Automatic annotation (TrEMBL):
It is a multi-pass membrane protein. The keyword NADP does not apply. SUPFAM superfamilies: MFS general substrate transporter. InterPro entries: MFS, MFS_trans_sf, MFS_TsgA-like. It comes from the Eukaryota. GO terms for cellular component: plasma membrane. This is MFS general substrate transporter. The chain crosses the membrane at residues 18-39, 59-78, 90-106, 112-139, 151-172, 184-204, 237-256, 276-295, 302-321, 327-347, 359-376, 388-409.
Length: 457
């Protein structure tokens, strides 16, 4: 019988240890942001080099995001048993291994080799996502979980536009427009970055935050959601559906952005389009940092609902907007996508207690949606790239329904929220105001707090 991991909660860490842990884990977001940024550009580049269709080029997305669907559940089980740090080592190892094998794939010009390597990288990154997203989300007050994760993932965005920027200067210029010479060197550098990070994590003392420690913190104030089995954690399960739909939509938008701008018929070539795509990623990144600021004050579910409605509207605008208008709407769509993934993650994994790592694995598994949407869009894009953007609209609509559902649920239970709330701290204050330290159930405490509120009014 395996002994339980000794752990702590983010609230129990000193300021120095908290900052160290936060900075170190945040560095991981830059790692896979760079890989993801290159992926969308390679999609268009391989169409030219290998003479494949837009639909065939989406095999890269199928491999990358399909790996999340397959591997994320195993990663969460592993980390629940052995901890975040060992999971990070496994993730970085797979990431470096996949990147190294890009070299022979480029040397012998085998598209199937690139697809296989991309799958291995995806397995590594899914492991890192389970670890890093979950770790940042629980590393401190629940009130600021969405803000913390948006801030950390902002560095993923910084790396995401670096990839297309590199591609616009070297992949599509001169002889590199029809060769793979530069690709192999870039991915050797990526492999080296993974090795360096793995060594740094080996020598670093990373505090372990366990589900049992989080559960104890919740139970002290009467939040007992995790007493129910995992299959009854409906907010998390529906969060997986929302994340699958959203990531599928986001990936589909990015996968054909270069093709979309070229096919608008206003004289934009692939090199220029790749550069514009990097500016789209900059817009996305700026939006994420702005979102992190807003989430310090506004309720995450409410803000996600607003951004969700914007995404659905602007995705339709991209579908029917001609020329420069369509490209402008595409930039706006990237801005409103910015906060969606981390907010869905934090909403779906909030107050899971002992189920935290398993829930994190399920939500990261939702990244697998990126494997299904691009082929569906690619089939339409082979005939009309602009009209194919109706496919992402469906994903944004599903995400918006989830966000609005949480807003309605919160309003029914405790009143409409505009401001972000730390439920644990709030419940402690409520218990003190009610003159009790007993572990009161969620429903009973909500009723008592409601009564006190009505009396005050």
């Amino acid at each position: 019988m395996t002994s339980k991991l000794a752990g702590t909660t983010g609230a129990q860490l000193s300021r120095g240890r908290w900052l160290f842990a936060f900075s170190l884990v945040t560095s991981l977001f830059f790692t896979w942001g760079f890989a993801y940024g290159l992926l969308d550009v390679l999609n268009a580049h391989f169409q030219e080099v290998f003479g494949i269709t837009k639909l065939q080029s989406t095999l890269l997305q199928l491999a990358y995001f399909g790996a999340y669907f397959v591997f994320a559940p195993f990663a969460s089980i592993f980390m629940d048993r052995y901890g975040y740090k060992k999971g990070i080592h496994i993730g970085l190892g797979l990431y470096s291994l996949g990147a190294i094998f890009f070299w022979p794939s480029a040397k012998f010009e085998r598209y199937g080799g690139f697809v296989g390597c991309t799958f291995i990288i995806g397995c590594g990154l899914s492991t890192l996502e389970v670890a890093a997203n979950s770790y940042i989300a629980v590393l401190g007050s629940p009130k600021y979980a969405a803000a913390r994760l948006n801030f950390s993932q902002g560095f993923q965005g910084v790396a995401s536009f670096a990839g297309p920027m590199i591609a616009s200067r070297w992949f599509f210029v001169g002889k590199n427009a029809t060769s793979l010479d530069t690709v192999q060197w870039v991915y050797l550098a990526v492999a080296g970055l993974g090795v360096v990070l793995n060594i740094l994590f080996y020598f670093c003392d990373l505090p372990e935050i366990t589900g049992d420690a989080l559960a104890d913190e919740m139970h002290e104030v009467g939040i007992t959601n995790d007493d129910e089995p995992f299959m009854k954690q409906y907010r998390c399960i529906f969060g997986w559906v929302a994340q699958t739909a959203y990531v599928g939509a986001q990936v589909a938008v990015a996968s054909f952005a270069v093709n979309y701008m070229v096919d608008q018929g206003i004289g934009i070539d692939k090199s220029h389009a790749s550069q514009l795509f990097s500016y789209c990623q900059i817009t996305f990144t700026v939006g994420r940092f702005i979102g992190a600021g807003l989430l310090n004050y506004l309720d995450p579910a409410l803000l996600l609902s607003i951004y969700g409605f914007a995404c659905t509207a602007f995705s339709l605008g991209v579908t029917f907007g001609p020329g420069k208008t369509g490209i402008g709407l595409l930039f706006t769509l990237f801005f409103f996508e910015s906060i969606c993934y981390p907010v869905i993650f934090t909403l779906a994994t909030a107050n899971l207690g002992k189920h935290t790592k398993r829930g994190s694995g399920l939500i990261v598994m939702g990244v697998g949606g990126g494997a299904w949407y691009p082929p569906a869009q690619g089939a339409i894009a082979n005939h009309n790239t602009r009209k194919s953007y109706i496919v992402p609209f469906t994903g944004f609509a599903a995400m918006t329904i989830y966000a609005v559902g949480i807003v309605v649920s919160q309003s029914i239970r405790g009143g409409f929220r505009v401001r972000a709330v730390d439920e644990i701290a709030q419940r402690k204050q409520h218990q003190e105001a009610l003159g009790t330290t007993e572990k009161t159930s969620d429903d009973d405490l909500d009723k008592k707090v409601g009564a006190v509120y009505v009396e005050k009014v």
